[in-house]
Here is the input.
Amino acid sequence: MYDDSSNGFRTLIVPLSATSPAVLHSILAVSAFAMRRFNPFFKALALEQKEKTVHYIRSMIRCYEPDSLMGALATAIMLCVFEIKDGCSPVWESHIKGAIALLRSLSSQQKHGSSASWMSGLTWWANKYLAYQYVNGYSTQMIDVEEVCDPLFWLSPDKDVAEIEGLMGCSSILMATIANIRRIAHIRKQPATQGSVAVPDEEVQDIESTLFSLVQRVQSVPGRYLLSESTPTEQTVCLIGDSDEVPLHAKTLILAGEARRQSALMFLYGSVLKLSPKHSAMRSRVSKCLICLKAVSFGEEEAGSAGTVVLPRWGMSPLLWPLFMTGLFSTEHDRPAILDMLRKLEDKGSLGNVGSVRLKLMKVWKNQDLRDTLSVSGSDEQKGNRAWPVLGLSPKDWPLSLG
Here is the structure.
């Protein structure tokens, strides 16, 4: 979302291209694919560079030389980025799994005397990036993904955990909390068996309290411009948009971070507490999230509107998860605005997975409408227990990359 120190693509992967042909060709492939929007010639060039990348990484893995593992890890991450941009094909998941296998090999080497430090450099950044992609991709698929639920994936020892990172568009502590919500949702979905461990209600309440008390920060931005549970959302968003004191990138990060915090509460209410989209608590979160998302201007024609923040060219992908969650738990009244924002993201952002997100949401809405039509009794509050499990999506529809 913003090119700060959390951008390992620039600080860690690009330098590797000087010594690794696989990394070099993977960067060229992603770059050419982004350029195809301006010239169709680049699409063929992107596929050609991708083929070269695959050839090189296969050779690296076959030889399995310890010194080449860093390059192979960086290449696997870049291939994942390519597949996400190319319409979110299922192949992105294979590259993520391959990158995690390489990461484990590197971790094993480093624990047995390698000079590289696990808590710094490419391994630490890749660890965090892969977990970020996994949580985004598996938020709505209730399968067990063990490692990404560990807060140590997120909480860097040398960084303020409440500071919004440019790469993720939110803070580390928020991503750790979302991973924890996903873990609890997975556990509660499993049938109770002898010896199984239940999640106490107190733990769920602690997560909600964490989200309520979280104030995500951006460096050098005064506290009056930060969004939290205690600030009036609409007034503060207008204050941010109209301010000359807050830089453009900081405005975007504040809005994106708050949109994800509100979406995390929706995720908790829907996947764990099973609240209906029409429940008052859910409606409040959807409304506040949409205020933040609408304040981000997705098109140049809105650049002069009061209270809006013009979305930078690099500021697209972290908005997908909040948009998707808001769509899952919205009512028919909110759908046109959500579809409009997705359309603008697709037009402006060169992100192929936006189209897949839109199609999945439309399928969810169709099934929700059918379920509501067939339901002849029960209040909106009582229908909450049926809200999350019946999304009408088969396992083959997932995982959907939202990173």
User: Anything to note?
Assistant: The longest helix spans residues 248-271. Residues 30 and 81 are 7 Å apart (CA to CA). Confidence is low (pLDDT under 50) at residues 113-118, 299-304, 380-395. The two ends are 11 Å apart (CA to CA).
